[in-house]
Design brief:
357 residues; mainly alpha; Fumarate Reductase Cytochrome B subunit; two-stranded antiparallel ribbon; 12 helices; 2% strand
């Protein structure tokens, strides 16, 4: 009996020890507050995290930009005022690049190659338009000094713009492989600056040319008859024409007026980006400028051909202002009759006597 009591006491003591150890290893009761973590200390001299402005999509904190998909094409907050300053990526830029380096460059290049090739072929097949009657030695004033100054200002500035424009639009395809990237870049930079500064002079000459020549470029019934027979180009017999024939009047309204307006308006949009226009508008203006410029150049090649080697005596009239009466009577018979009869004054204002030979 004593032995049984001794064993029971030993078992009770062991159980008490086990319970004590279990409670000692158990987590603290919920009533005991957990030990506070030390607060994060900002680096010395660091500024406090700024408060986000209204409608901002950025996450609070430092250097936590929003996701790219959320800001790629959507207007966001921008502290700089102005149109499109809150647009990170302008998606029409790739469209402009595709169109400019695709159809505009390809078909524009084809046109600028086909036009001179056709004129050269025509010259070898048909030759220049020669006078059918001998020169008389008597001269008639065709263009006064103002008209010639406006024309040559427009012509010379156009040459500068055409050469620099071709260099910028097509140069990387045929010039850069020959000259190398460095020299091509230097020449293109010079051409671009010339283009920017000569452009306004060309626009001014267009306005002056319109004012001084428009009165003689309205279409009439004789002009439609002239156009119907291509001015006698195929038959060899010149059709009656006024001071300017139907072809020259088409050139005036198509090139100087229509192409001139498109080129000038689109050029001004690109030349002065501080007018608060959008980048998409400037990209579209660039395409219109290129297309109109290429068409203007192709039409000008035909105009230059007719006014120089294509027509005997034509260049003399614009260079010196006077043409032989035989030339005037053959190419512009209606104008010749008006001047000789006294119904029309000479371009400088002089009025010939009626029946003056």
């Amino acid at each position: 009996m004593k032995v049984f009591r001794l064993c029971s006491g030993v078992c009770a003591a062991l159980a008490a020890c086990l319970v004590t150890v279990a409670f000692a290893q158990a987590p603290a009761a919920s009533t005991v507050a957990p030990e506070a973590k030390p607060a994060e200390v900002a680096p010395a001299g660091a500024k406090a995290v700024p408060a986000l402005p209204a409608k901002s999509t950025a996450a609070p904190g430092w250097n936590v930009p929003p996701k790219w998909d959320d800001v790629q094409l959507k207007p966001q907050y921008a502290s700089v005022p102005g149109r499109e300053t809150n647009v990170l990526e302008q998606d029409s830029g790739q469209w402009w690049r595709t169109v400019r380096n695709g159809p505009v460059t390809f078909y524009g290049g084809v046109l600028l190659l086909v036009a001179p090739a056709f004129l050269l072929l025509f010259y070898f097949v048909k030759g220049p338009f020669k006078l059918h009657s001998p020169l008389t030695g008597k001269m008639m004033e065709r263009f006064n000094s103002l008209e010639r100054t406006a024309h040559w200002t427009m012509a010379l500035s156009f040459v500068v713009l055409a050469v620099s424009g071709i260099m910028m639009l097509f140069g990387k395809y045929f010039l850069m492989p020959v000259l190398g990237a460095s020299l091509f870049a230097a020449l293109t930079t010079i051409g671009k600056n010339l283009h920017n500064f000569v452009g306004p002079l060309f626009m001014f000459s267009l306005v002056v040319s319109f004012v001084v020549f428009v009165k003689d470029n309205f279409m009439s019934g004789n002009d439609f008859a002239w156009l119907a027979k291509f001015g006698g180009l195929l038959s060899g017999n010149h059709m009656p024409a006024g001071r300017f024939n139907g072809g020259e009047k088409i050139w005036f309204w198509l090139a100087i007026v229509i192409f001139g307006i498109v080129i000038s308006a689109s050029g001004l949009i690109m030349l002065f980006p501080n007018w608060n226009q959008t980048r998409e508008l400037m990209a579209e203006a660039n395409l219109f400028h290129a297309v109109a410029g290429v068409c203007f150049m192709a039409a000008t090649l035909a105009h230059i051909y007719i006014g120089t080697i294509g027509t005997e005596g034509a260049y003399q009239g614009m260079r010196e202002g006077f043409v032989d009466e035989a030339w005037a009577k053959e190419h512009h018979s209606l104008w010749y009759d008006e001047v000789k009869s006294g119904k029309r004054a000479a371009p400088s204002g002089a009025q010939p006597a009626t029946g003056d030979d």
